[in-house]
Structures are given as C-alpha cells and as structure tokens.
Amino acid sequence: MKHFPIFLAVENKRIVLSGGGDAALAKLRLLMKTEAKICVFTENAAPEIHFWAADGKLTLTQRALTPGDVTGAVLFYAADEDAVEDARTAAIAETEGALVNIVDNLADSAFITPAIVDRDPVTVAIGTEGAAPVLARAIKADLEEALPAALGILAKTGKSFRHAVDVLPMGSKRRAFWSEFYFSAGPAALDAHGEAGIHPGLEALLDKHIMTAPKAGHVDFVGSGTGDAELLTLKARKAIDKADVIIHDDRVTVEVLELARREATIIDAGSDDAAALVIAHVATGAHVVRLKHGDGRVNAEAATILAAGVSTAFIAGICAPDAAQIIPFPVQTRNFASPFLASEAI
Hints:
Blueprint: E1 14-18, H1 22-31, E2 37-41, H2 47-54, E3 59-61, E4 73-78, H3 83-95, E5 99-102, E6 115-119, E7 122-126, H4 133-146, H5 151-160, H6 172-193, H7 198-211, E8 218-223, H8 234-242, E9 245-248, H9 254-257, E10 265-268, H10 274-282, E11 287-292, H11 299-307, E12 311-315
Helix pairs in contact: 5-6, 6-7, 10-11
C-alpha cells in the first residue's frame, strides 16, 4: 500500500486550487461537497467557476497564484493543465505547508483523490493508487446501486442518538441495537412515517434492547482451510466478521485474520490452553471464533468445551483447491454431535 487511506478534517479549513479549466472544474465539483473554504486562483476561469463564486460556494481570485496565497491551507490542487505552471504553484504550496495534488501527475503528488460514493455522512472512498481509474469507477457504480439514498438520512439520525445508546454495554448488545436499526427498524420507520418517524422509532427500539436480556456467549469452531481468504466459506466469513474474540493457532494466515473487525480481540493461542481461553471469554457473553488452520477439526479441545456446556457450532474449512478432492468427514463422532470430533486435531 503506497497510499494510506484517511479521512481528513476540512470543515472551515482552506483548500486552494490553481486553475480554471476542465481539470479544475472536475476537482471543484467534488470539493464543493465538503464544508471547506475553497479558494481558486486563475486568470482564465470557466463560466461555472464565476457562477459558483457569485453563489458563495468558493472564493475566486482572478490572477495567477503567488507566494503567500496558500498559507494556512490544508490541501492544494495544481490544476492549470500546464506542466511548468503546475510545478511552479506546487512548489509554492509545498513551501507554505499544504499537502499537494498535481492533477494527472501521480509521481509528484503527496496525495490522490479517490472515487467517492457520497451518502453523507456515510462516505465510501475507492482508490487504485492511480493504476486503474476505470476499475475504481466501476466499483463506485456498483456501490452507488447497492447503497440506498436513504442511508445518509438514517446515519444522520443515528449519529444524533449515539449518546442515548451509551446505556447499552459495549460489545454485542450495542452492535445488535445498531444492526437492527440500520437494516430493519430504521428503514421500516422511514418507509412508514418518513424522516420524522425515525427518531421515535429509535427510542422504541432502545427501550426494547434495554429490556432484552443479554445473549449467552457462543463459540464457532472455524477452519481457515488453505489460508487463502478467498476460499473461506460464506458462513466462515460471517462468523469471523461478527466475532468479539478470535482465538487462533499460529498457522492461520494474516489474510484471514484481517477479515476480523478492528474492535475484535485477537489472541494467538500458542502453547496456551485454548479450551480454557474459549470458556473464559464465552463466560463473559462474548461471541468467540476458535480459528484453526485446515478443516478445523479440534477433537480433545472441542470435547472439553462441549463438556463445559458452551453453545457451539462447527464451520469446516476447505483444504483442497479442487472441490472434487474434498473427502466427506466420517460419520462416527465418538459420542459427540460434530464430525469435527471424529479425528485428532490438525
């Protein structure tokens, strides 16, 4: 990763752009979606820039950029579409402390602008480090279709309600509330009563979750297969994504572990007693994933956990690249319900 993706705070901060042609227009259409103070310097501004300036959306100075014009700005765009002029203005901006983007000049730019899906305040940024803009636009089009326009309305209302939800404990109980709001209760309230109905729906939903007893802990035994994250089953990916705690062996790959939520606790079992770790975390009400390399068989360990009365599920990993080579698990299970207990741990 040559470019680290971040979201930069620009509210009430200066963004300066030099240029007045097509390249400038393309950047300005995007920048005007922000709450930044946009300043444009050019001797030859397109009619649209004059219109936006008259409408108060930006400040237009009709001359070439000179030293001192970029002081205090957080970002600078060199968009004069002339290599010599872009180099001159970029040098001024770098001296005056702004991050610099030279349009269509990846090598000399300090940052790049990604393709953006805007569902304010939900924003999705897509970057290919300049390698495949067409691919970025295709991904953007897919996401625009997948994310409903109403998502921004739900997110704004949810943001205003976050402090009220602090009464719910961190972890699975709070996530269950927000999951139900964004994917069920919120859209239903919006459809039935419009935007005015979302907040009352949130209050009713919060009361429901306050009164709901916390769920007991649970463990999913998940096989990571060959270690190729793309070969994980859909069920395995969902379990990893939902986990509060992931306890893994040392053969599980980084690519598989990166599927976990950032908030999840990730533990390398190493030589520790993995069964004891699982039982201890489940006792706190956590959703635990016991992640094993290969197909996920954990004979003695699973027997100990089952004997402790822990709620358990088993999700096999795919070990062979050719599905036709996969051998079904034996039926005999040593008196336990799972086929994972039919052979020794891998």
